[in-house]
């Protein structure tokens, strides 16, 4: 019987939800590993809606669960229905929705709060010693909740290839150990069963991001 893996989404679209390519890569790689993905999202309003052509916020209102359902092809549940007992692992793809809808990282950085539903889910998997896979910006959730954990969001020195490297510095300020890794690599925090990879934190070709997420999924399944 294949592993059952919860995938938590934060909307649909890089600037205000889950990163679509990362989410798709997670689902494809889970399928390839013979695992069963169960998709969840919080039933809350998005922080805001961004016009992805202009990169600017609009006056529109959208719901995180309703938008995430686009990626899940409608097969999705409210995050409040997630029961860790029937699941083997948790994966949270990246996208600004993680920093806007699952937490307040986008506006408050290291002083952010993580939404209670999301924090409860992360703590439940951690307490049950079940693996957690996080990519792109989503490792900041673990940085906030599990002090002293080991994570990667890629590199900690900003350059054209690593435009969001300051995130690594902020995570260090929270007491985490940041491990520099290439986009096709993962870091495994064995003690906390956390598997992280940088994905679109790196200005890399999409197939490299896809491959890095594949390694993350493989490690998560191995640890489950």
Automatic annotation (TrEMBL):
CDD domains per the UniProt record, alphabetical: GATase1_ES1
SUPFAM superfamilies named in the record: Class I glutamine amidotransferase-like
PANTHER family associated with the record: ES1 PROTEIN HOMOLOG, MITOCHONDRIAL (PTHR10224:SF11)
Protein name: GAL3A protein
Higher taxonomy: Eukaryota, Metazoa, Chordata, Craniata, Vertebrata
């Amino acid at each position: 019987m294949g592993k059952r893996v919860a995938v938590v989404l934060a909307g649909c679209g890089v600037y205000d939800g889950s990163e679509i390519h990362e989410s798709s890569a997670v689902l494809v790689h889970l399928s390839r590993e013979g695992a069963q993905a169960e998709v969840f999202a919080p039933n809350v309003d998005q922080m805001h809606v961004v016009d992805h052509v202009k990169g600017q916020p609009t006056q529109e209102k959208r719901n995180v669960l309703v938008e995430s359902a686009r990626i899940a092809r409608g097969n999705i549940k409210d995050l409040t229905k997630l029961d860790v007992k029937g699941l083997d692992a948790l994966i949270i793809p990246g996208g600004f929705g993680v920093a806007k809808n699952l937490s307040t990282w986008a506006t408050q950085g290291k002083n952010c709060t993580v939404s209670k539903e999301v924090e409860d889910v992360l703590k439940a998997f951690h307490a049950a010693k079940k693996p957690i896979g996080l990519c792109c910006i989503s490792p900041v959730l673990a940085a906030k909740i599990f002090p002293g954990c080991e994570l990667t969001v890629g590199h900690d020195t900003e350059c054209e290839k690593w435009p969001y490297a300051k995130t690594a510095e902020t995570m260090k300020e929270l007491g985490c150990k940041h491990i520099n890794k290439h986009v096709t690599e993962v870091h495994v925090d064995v003690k906390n069963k956390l598997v992280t990879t940088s994905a679109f934190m790196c200005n890399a070709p999409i197939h490299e991001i896809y491959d890095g997420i594949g390694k993350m999924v493989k490690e998560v399944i191995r640890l489950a």
